[in-house]
Amino acid sequence: MSHIDINAVVKNYGDVEVIHGIDVHIERGEFAVLVGPSGCGKSTLLRMIAGLEDITGGEITIGGRVVNNLAPKDRDIAMVFQNYALYPHMTVAQNMSYSLRIRGLPKAEISRAVEEAAEILGLRDLLERRPNQLSGGQRQRVAMGRAIVRDPAVFLFDEPLSNLDAKLRVKMRAEIKTLHRRLQNTTIYVTHDQIEAMTMADKIVVLDAGRIAQIGSPLDLYDKPANRFVATFIGSPSMNIITGTVQSDGAIRCADGQRLPMRTGLEPGRRIDIGVRPEHLKISKTDEGLSAEIILVEPTGPETLISCQCAGEQLLVSMTDRFELQPGDVVKLDVAPGCHHCFDTVSGETLRTL
Questions:
Q1: Which end of the chain is less packed: N or C, by CB atoms within 10 Å?
Q2: CB 236 within 8 A of CB 221
């Protein structure tokens, strides 16, 4: 178990810089998730930590040791890939023990390590099977078992659940988190799925176009986003954005002329983006609020998602109350008090308000 420091790390492909001076500190035993949209640089950063990509600039240390020029095998890391990377001609036991066998460890020690990992992962009855005889979830467990037997200082996961169906992904992410609590290894996990990030991480590193948008705990990022990108990326369904102009009385004049009453303390005439999460929009039981036309109603069981045209934008409302609503209906929407965020329309940065 080791801490990891990523200091001013840069990555170029030819003349194109794709990672722009990233700084991250990961504590010993911490479960850190790198999250962001496709192409943001999260997998590239993970591969640089693993030694599978060269570092153009900066420094990476694992347990205080600079690893920039060390081969992957010398970094005391174990990596679990998206495609499992199992040898099809080997049994589960042989796949799990492969790295120990090539290191020349005694057979008794190898057998003990495999048995312990198989017990942890529920693979004891599958040790003699080959990968083509396993389900996707079982293959992912074998890949994890191969990492566990090495007893590394750091676990690296590169989108390990993206090939699984939705129900199995939920089950496997719980198993990975439970495994982490049991082993307490430092873990870096890459995903584009922000639900995975929110449910699994101690610390989330949000990447946007090769730069860090924000670092924090899941609820810090959800409740206190540093900018519009983080606000709209973290959370499912995504945050609504309403563009408007601050009026002399503090209200926001929206694109369709409606007024959104709220105090921001910002100067009159300033254009801003107001962020409101779907669960903080409510259908008013009075004639007060923003007028909205229903576009689509999506009942999911525990909640109903309502798409509507309002304030010059298409907004999404998430509610647990059940209303008899149809497309074309006109309703009034209220914003829950104090449950809005203000962003600069140009930079996207969160604005300090009253």
A1: C
A2: no
Which residues lie closer than 8 Å to 77 by C-beta, 6 or more apart? 49, 50, 51, 62, 152, 153, 154, 155, 156
SS3 track for 32-54 = EEEECCCCCCHHHHHHHHHCCCC
Nearest CA to 301 among 318, 315, 317? Answer: 318
Question: What's the rounded Cα separation, in Å, for the pair 307 and 293?
Answer: 9
Q: Determine the Cα–Cα distance for residues 233 and 277; give it in Å rounded to an integer.
A: 12
Q: What is the pLDDT of residues 55-88, one digit of tens each?
A: 999 999 999 999 999 999 899 999 998 888 889 9
pLDDT band at 201 (very low <50, low <70, confident <90, very high): very high
Q: Give the pLDDT of residue 1.
A: 67
What is the pTM assigned to this prediction?
A: 0.90
User: What strands, in cross-sheet order, belong to the sheet with 330-335?
Assistant: 281-283, 330-335, 290-299, 304-310, 313-319
Which pair of tokens denotes residue 326? 């149809």
Q: Is the pLDDT of residue 48 over 90?
A: yes
Residue 190 bridge partners (DSSP): 34, 158
Residue appearing with tokens 């009453």 = 261
Tokens found for residue 93: 């036991």
Pairing of strands 31-35, 16-26: unpaired
The whole-number pLDDT of residue 353 equals: 64
* Percentage of the chain exceeding pLDDT 90: 67
What is the Cβ-side half-sphere exposure of residue 250, based on CA atoms within 13 angstroms?
Answer: 7
Q: Which of 288, 256, 289, 255 is nearest to 273 (CA)?
A: 255
Q: Describe the strand order of the beta sheet including 203-208 as a list of residue ranges.
A: 77-80, 154-158, 186-191, 31-35, 203-208, 211-216
